[in-house]
Predict the structure.
Amino acid sequence: MLTDSQPTTTNNSRCVLLLYLVLCPAAVSRAVSCCCISCCVLLLYLVLCPAAVSRAVPRPVSCCCASCCVLLLCLVKMSHDVIVDALPYIDTGYDEPGVREAAIAMVEDEKKRYRPTKNYLEHLPQLNLNAFEVSSSQINNSIDPQTEVMRCEFERVAARQPMDTLSMKRYELPPPPPGKMTDVAAWGECVDNSMAQLEHQATRITNLDLMNEFGSEAWKAHNNILQHMLTRSQAQLQEYKKEIQELNWSRKSMQTKAGEELRHLETSWVSLVSRNYEIEQACVLLEAEIAKSEREKEIQE
């Protein structure tokens, strides 16, 4: 019969499993969500034998078990690290009802609790909100006269005022007002306006002639540039797709190999835990029989 002062392999395993449950609850929750048989066996073991677990906790510590101490340090370190345990190529259960909704709810909950601790825009220059504003001295010195127009436009937008419509008066040829029909100066302004309009139309005709003569070649050159840009972008896109495909293949191969090993280890772990449970049950029965025999012996004496 084993005494409380003798550490056993079964006790050590119980302590390790209990520490894993305490320090790594995320892994246990993932195992339950994936219908992990091994986790169910472990939970049944803890429910059916709580006394054995409570007796197993102090034994490795009191006996200074080196392996348990090392494992305890590893588990403590794992509890503070971010472990990416998603294996989409071998995990199952994603298509079950409610799984997608539960995952989205977890993401939304984490988004509500997430507080960024890093400034992701620190590599960019400081935003200058007064870049389009100029002082009166700059306006008087004719420094960037268009900036004043932009400032007025920003003020109009801020005041939510409508934009002025395009004035078409410069394209009209109105006669002098009725009261200035005999005014030579008024007629002179009308003649100057008509000459400006005529020159503008001549400029437009010249531009149309130039476009008819050289426009097709200019557009052909522009189309060639666009075609080169398209070819280069498509080649770059294919290269990226090839890299992504190779990465997915390597990831699938790695996860498939890891999945086979995980399934083998899980089967072994379930077998060992089940065997430990059976041994523990047998020990409980033997202890009950021994206690019964001792009571019968005391009664007979």
Summary: The longest helix spans residues 184-300. The chain is about 70% helix and 0% strand. Residues 155 and 179 are 40 Å apart (CA to CA). Residues 1-73 have pLDDT under 50 and may be disordered.
